[in-house]
Design a protein that fits this description.
CATH superfamily: Gcn5-related N-acetyltransferase (GNAT)
CATH architecture: 3-Layer(aba) Sandwich
Shape: globular
Number of strands: 7
Number of domains: 1
Structural class: alpha+beta
Order of helices and strands: EHHEEEHEHEE
Oligomer: single chain
Strand content: 25-35%
Strand order of the largest sheet: 1-2-3-4-5-7-6
Length: 174
């Protein structure tokens, strides 16, 4: 016999495919959490175009997911995008981007795990992610779900300045 869930509705999470209708919410989440952009939120126009292009260019490999709480409010998102334009290797390597609307390692792990499970069902061999070294939450999330550190990208001093970042890779097992 099934029992009623004891998890309050507000703490339940749903991960669903994103669409162009989600553009406004995704952009607001990005603007609200500027640390996702290493402290440099692109202009509203560039940010809109970047997110809209990601939402419109989804296919069977490269996708965009939205995390919602039990009330339907967007709390985070994750996307896999092509890491190269080289046609021979385009579908073998992806770049993962995660944006958390609240600082939650549970939410981060759920989104990252969702993307990994998807990657296993595709031709992808590697998924890369870059995280500022000061973002200890996401560093911990990526390590917890199986990403491996492969290098450190030094702080950029020329505009646009960027803090030191860690490059991670997830090797997708068949």
């Amino acid at each position: 016999m099934l029992r009623t869930s004891t998890i309050p509705p507000a703490s339940r999470l749903l991960i669903r495919q994103g669409g162009v209708a989600d553009l406004g919410g995704v952009v607001r989440l990005c603007e609200h959490h500027a640390e996702y952009w290493d402290g440099l939120v692109p202009s509203a126009m560039r940010l809109n175009r970047f997110i809209e292009r990601a939402l419109k260019s989804q296919d069977d490999v490269f996708q965009f997911w939205i995390a919602e709480d039990g009330h339907g409010a967007m709390v985070g998102w994750e996307m896999l995008s092509a890491a190269t334009t080289d046609p021979a290797n385009r579908r073998l390597t992806a770049h993962a981007v995660t944006c958390l609307g609240r600082q939650s390692s549970t939410l981060g792990r759920m989104l990252a795990t969702h993307a990994i499970r998807h990657a296993v069902r595709t031709p992808l061999q590697y998924v890369f992610a870059r995280v500022p070294t000061r973002d200890t939450l996401m560093v911990g999330v990526l390590e917890a779900v199986g990403y491996q550190e492969v290098g450190v990208i030094p702080e950029a001093v020329k505009p646009p300045a960027r803090p030191e970042r860690i490059e991670f890779v997830y090797v997708v097992a068949p």
